[in-house]
Amino acid sequence: MSDMRIGGLASGMDIDKLVNDLMRAERQPLNKMEQDREWLKWQRDAYRDVNKQLSELDTLAFDMKLERTFNSKSVTSSDSAVSAIATAASGNGDYTLSVEQVATSAYNYSRNPITTDGKALDPNANLSTQTGNFKHGLTLGETFSITTYNEDGSKNTQSFDVTGDKSLNDILSEISDSDLGVRAFYDKSADQVMIERTVTGNFNQSEDEFLGAEIGFDGSAEFLATTLDIKNGDNSSGTWKLNEKGGEDAKFTYNNGLNITSHSNQYTLNGVNFQFNDVTDGNIKVNVSNNVDDAVDKIVEFVDKYNKVIEDLNEKTDEKRYRDFPPLTEKQKEDMEEQEIELWEEKAKSGMLKNDSVIEGGLNQMRTNWYTPIENDGAFKMMSEIGITTSSNYRDGGKLFIDEDDLRTALSQDPESVHKLFSGTDENPGIARRLEQTIDNTVQSIEKKAGKSTTVDNSFLLGRRIEDLNKEMDDFEDRLIQIEDRYWREFGAMEKAIQRMNQQSAYIMQNFG
Description:
alpha+beta; 3 domains; five-stranded antiparallel sheet; coiled coil; FliD; bacterial flagellum; cilium
């Protein structure tokens, strides 16, 4: 089809307008297909929005199966020297303890500044250029080893080379990046090197090895002992004494009788994780109790989400369908104001899921899940026994109401039975498990209709219908091109006939006029 057509020269008629008017009528079926396709896309997205809401509810339903939701704990301590975190398995009550010693990391450092007086040491320069700047000299080509210890007493030993093409910081970085669990660095202001363990505790139980140091090395290693002036021990008094500091275990006494040590400042007793921040002045008490407020908040959040979901879904299935307001085509939108388009589409999108059997079936099953008794060995069989009831007004569509006083009483007296009511087992599922199964079935049924954002169109019902419409529209577009070409050919033939008639008329007038 040519884009450059001029008609009506012989007839004086506006052929272009005539063809456009005829084609507008011919395009009506295509416009209808475009509207049908848009409707299917809206419906697909509406279904996916339903699945999004159901997935959010499913996430909260999963939390309702967890013991920690109902057995969350509150912890208080009489002294900031000890803090604690309790899990759902923690035993309630007072825990009495005193901390005699906190765990510390072992560290060692240069006994004195390592730079020659009046010199400036560059820790980033090659050692070959810095030999004269070290107060106690530097021997290149040496290899030294450092040993640390694991919790089971086993050793980690690693060797390091002192070569001229390395800087002081290069060697210290190699130590820090090794598997020794040590960090080393040079502080220019103090002009000293610090080397320390990255974990707390006393792992070297033998005083025969490196005088019991956690960071052990041979005293004959000149780079550490001489150049950096870091020594394992001091024999100036005639008796070897360990220079290294720290490297101590935490020591505490539980209930005035049980003496316990720990490599770290954390220790777990009866499900309670204690954190030792400082030594205590005698006994302190840590109290663990049920956090009923937290459990109530989580249940209320779950019920509120459930009510919101069923309210939204009930509105969607009851929404009025306005069949006189089909989706607008792009051509129609061009002739309308933005506000007009918005109001029109509000009507056009109404009722997309009206009376949908899958959604209505899911809603009915969810309502059944709540009021059907639960088979378990707990004290509660019905939600009404813990203060959660279904609205008696059918217009509410099965909304739930919570009596927080009854719920708090149940959680205070028997949180485990409340947990069993919601969770249950695979054989005898509780409310949360029932809802999960119902949601899963509903989501899968909807996905067969509307798919997911990650699925291809030909794998779900609406997608296949959209693909079919796309093919029909492409075929119809080809047909419209042929029709328009035919119209132009026909009008072209008419123009030629009129032109011949005009020529004949002019000839007659000229010769016989």
